[in-house]
Amino acid sequence: MSRMQRQLKHLEELDVTEPRHLSTVSRNSSTFIVGMSIMLLSWGIDAALDAAFEQGTFFNQLLRPGDHDMVIRLWLLATMLFFIMYVSRVKRVHRRQETRLNAALHRAETERVRAAAILESLGDAISLQDLDMKILYQNQAHIDLMGAHLGEYCYAAYQGQDDVCNGCHLAQSYQDGLTHKQERHAHTKQGLRFTEIVSTPLRDASGHIVAGVESVRDITDRKRVDLEIERINRELELRALELGEANRELESFCYSLSHDLRSYITRISTAQQILAQTPQAREPDLVYPVQIIEDSCRGMEELVEAILTLSRLTREPMHWEDVSLSELAREISLQLQQQEMERTAEFIIPQGLVVRGDHHLLRVVLENLMGNAWKYTREVPMARLELGVGEHEGNLCYFVRDNGIGFDMAERELLFKPFKRLKNAQGYLGTGVGLATVERAILRHGGRVWGEGELGKGTTICFQLPANGNR
Fold this sequence. Notes:
By secondary structure, the protein is of the alpha+beta class. It has four domains: 118 residues; 96 residues, PAS domain (Beta-Lactamase, 2-Layer Sandwich); 78 residues; 147 residues, Heat Shock Protein 90. Helices cover 55% and strands 18% of the residues. The protein is built from twelve helices and twelve strands. A hairpin with a 5-residue loop joins strand 11 and strand 12. Helix 9 packs parallel to helix 12, helix 10 packs across helix 11 and helix 11 runs antiparallel to helix 12. The longest helix is centred in the middle third of the chain and has 57 residues.
């Protein structure tokens, strides 16, 4: 236990609630007895004087004085009684003031010790200086840092000067009444150290500045963190430049992909169409190769379009608005049914599913999810596609569920990887980037997506979106 703590504990243990009323009664009784004794003594002295200089004996004058003497003695006794009562009242007032003064001094000492204990526990080096820059107080941390200089002038103790330092932050606080901060650094045995000096004016009850508080804090660790953050920011800026260059290269690649590669595909498709119109194309040996060329051109066109869509998702700006998933799902379901009128399917789409997000990206999400569900339920006699809402880990989530071929949960990590096809999906046409596109669009919203399924029992793709979205 420190000295300050022991002193504070001692002050708190003082009995400041002693029975003062008993002491007051005793003192009042004492005053009354003394006063009555003086009054009786004066009566006796007056009787003795009357017996000595006038007629009669002492006892006659004491017990049976004359009328004139009785009046004088009664007047004297009344005067003394009044004086005694006045003295007693003055003493009571004095004692009350003394009691209040002692209590105030005790409270002031308690607060002083408590304030000193608080200043000692702060960890910062703190000193108190008057308007003449004389050091009035130093806590232990300040003594350890600057040395003991109580009663000295700060400019002489710390800087060895004869007058206030130029640009003194504490002097500025005295002038404008504001708090000032300064950062300084110095090379020490422990290496380069940084300190922050904070000066604050101290005011009395009337608002006048009477002193100043100077706090010295070691901010070396914070400065090191700031320097490290600056270094990381510079690296991030460099990485951002590199990323910008990579994005420009990606845009150039996408341009080539969308124009140059498509031009070759168009040429091959045109040649295939010309070949398909010739009589030789109907020969059994050429029917299959011609069909393969047509399917490959269509597949390449779909793959190019899927790759372009996937790359655009990360570059297009987000437009936040209220989007009705129910209306989007109904539009997509009609498009799917029009593509294959011969199929029988049940679409379960609830009313009023509205979320906050980008309309275009959410359409891409539902088009891919419902398109996959439509594709992988082709072999089911009665396809069932459902858009729904549920709860996952205490948060709202949305899902697209089907009763198609499903998938093995052991392959769940491959679901959202581009160009990765699951084993039971090998016989189905597709580009392999549909679910990767879905994941990219959901991540742009700040959400997450995952899949659940079982072989032969269908697939459920769930996704979560932020509660309110970002603007």
